[in-house]
Amino acid sequence: MKPRRIVDAVMTRASRLLGGPAQSRVVLTLAGALAVDGADKGTVSAMAPQLKSAFGIGNTQIGLLVTVVALAGAAFTVPVGLLTDRTRRTRLLALSVALWAVAMFLAGASGSYAWLLASRAALGAVSATAGPTIASLVGDFFPVKDRARLYGLILAGELVGTGLGFALSGSIGSALSWRFAFWWLIIPAGVVVWFVSRLPEPARGGQSRLETGQENITDERDAPRPHDGPAQNVTAGAGAEDGTGSGHEDGPAARDGERAREAGAGRGRDGDPAGRAVRRAQVEPHENLVLHSDPRRKPTWWAIRYVLRVRTNLILILASALGYFYFAGLRSFATIYTTDRYGVTTSVATSLVLVVGIGILAGVLSGGRIADRLLRRGRVNARALVPTVCMLTVPLLFAPAIHATSLALALPLLVVGTLFLGAANPPLDAARLDILPPYLWGTGEGVRTMLRTLGEAAAPTLFGYFSAHVFGNQGGDGGTGLEYTLLFFLLALIAAGLLGVVATRTYPRDLATAQASTERIAARSCDPPDADP
Question: What is the maximum span of the chain, computed from C-alpha positions, in angstroms?
């Protein structure tokens, strides 16, 4: 019994750290969905030598296997984001993970490089669902005050999955074949599908947000409805009605008006730290961007244009894309740079890369927690401030680490630098949810993911070109050319930090605008859609 008691105590403690049974279930399920996608990235890297031998290909073709996933994902993220705002998200996510498993089976069964490349393109298309759906679910499942911290826990799933994919796929591929390195991922994908398909769909806008310690999750279909007219779902706290224009008196009048007002106005302005901070500072919204009706009834290009008109959102999208651009380039050449610079073997270099990855994981887990704590203390722009500080700090740590010739000096600087790099992401992702109405969360994340993915796809090629053709002759060796390339592209992180400085000034007013949209849609739920800007 003693070992069982220890296990029970550990599980109970872990549940409390994650916010209780209900929040733990959501965090682990969504983290699992990101983990299987991350595991695939690690698998391709681990199986590169075997794939070269099996298909007679070189580094360019290996790189294309990664690039085609990114390009396919970029092409599909905006349509998927629009679909996320208009359909049941848990069902959409479960379906995409199931199709992901099918694509992994086809990749393992490939008889030619063309077949493998086509299966990778299909994989990119179905994996595009993860970003928009998970972002939207995070916004509706978790309270504003804890959103960045819990988002960080979910994002950690991708990092853990990448590490496990790299380690386990490498071992399985070496023991069996490269095909089984892909096929084994079908098993965890099936587990994720089972859990996601049983995850209740939250009401849009936060009517069913989970409080700390909550035991059960309420499905949106369980919300009380006085009559059975179509499209009666009104989301509170989000600021958007579902399907007004159907001819019914939908909205707060069709449900519980008092509940809608409490969730919309109370949570929007008084019931969360961001709302209280905005109210204390007497921040006025942008009246030309305040919505008065369901934005999902608008045309596709109107929705895309609106999310890009929100100044802070556009700034954060660009800053995030620049950060991911540098990380993608660094990740692509980290092993090569380490072996050339410090004269270590590939296996040692790989182990060192994993050690540095621990810094990223620590940053992802701590960045959101720090931003949420500052927000609760009244710092209204905390979720823009923390990423800004992180982005401006990373070059100060990376520059001497990259230039150092001593591994003992470079390694701790890189670990701390990647910690700051990882810490920027959770508050950035939470901030984008804060400044958009909930019915546009999927669209906003789709646009952001598309631009981020394009940056990630371009990074390996640009880093490789600059190291070979721009800086290749500096010092007479390729290792030095790569050193100058990594130093030069630190300008991307500096630019991201400077954009963040602007975002700290624009964020409060855009936050007030999103909250004003919440309140006005709840108050004028029957207004015609042409009242929007």
Answer: 77
110: phi then psi, degrees, rounded to nearest 5: -60, 135
Long-range residue pairs from 210-215, CB within 8 A, at least 24 positions apart, any chain: 210/19, 210/20, 210/22, 210/23, 210/26, 210/141, 210/142, 210/143, 211/20, 211/143, 212/19, 212/20, 212/23, 212/146, 213/19, 213/20, 214/20, 214/21, 214/22, 214/23, 215/20, 215/21, 215/22
84 and 77 Cβ atoms separated by less than 8 Å:
no
Name the burial class of residue 59, with classes exposed (0-12), middle (13-18) and buried (19+) by CB atoms within 10 angstroms of its CB.
exposed
Please state, in angstroms and rounded to a whole number, the distance separating the CA atoms of residues 395 and 491. 8
**DSSP conformation letters of 427-461:** HHHHHHHHTS-GGGHHHHHHHHHHHHHHHHHHHHH
Number of other CB atoms surrounding residue 491 within 10 Å: 12
Cα–Cα separations (whole angstroms), residue 462 to 22, 321, 458: 44, 15, 6
- Cα Rg, the chain, nearest whole Å: 23
pLDDT in tens, 19-58: 677 888 888 999 998 888 888 777 777 777 788 888 887 7
Q: What is the pTM of this model?
A: 0.75
Q: How far is Cα 144 from Cα 276, in angstroms, rounded to an integer?
A: 11
Q: Which two tokens stand for residue 516?
A: 């004003």
Token couple for 429 = 């992702």
Instruction: In whole angstroms, give the CA distance from residue 332 to residue 461.
Output: 10
pLDDT of 223-282, one tens digit each?
544 344 433 333 333 333 333 333 333 443 334 334 334 444 444 444 567 667 777 777
Q: What is the pLDDT of residue 532?
A: 45
Torsion of the alpha carbons at 13, 19, 25 and 31, rounded to the nearest 10: -100
Provide the pLDDT for residue 384: 92
* Cα separation of the two ends of the chain: 64
Predicted confidence (pLDDT) per residue in 310-361, tens digit: 999 999 999 988 988 888 888 777 777 887 788 877 667 767 877 888 888 8
Cα 258 to chain centroid, rounded: 34
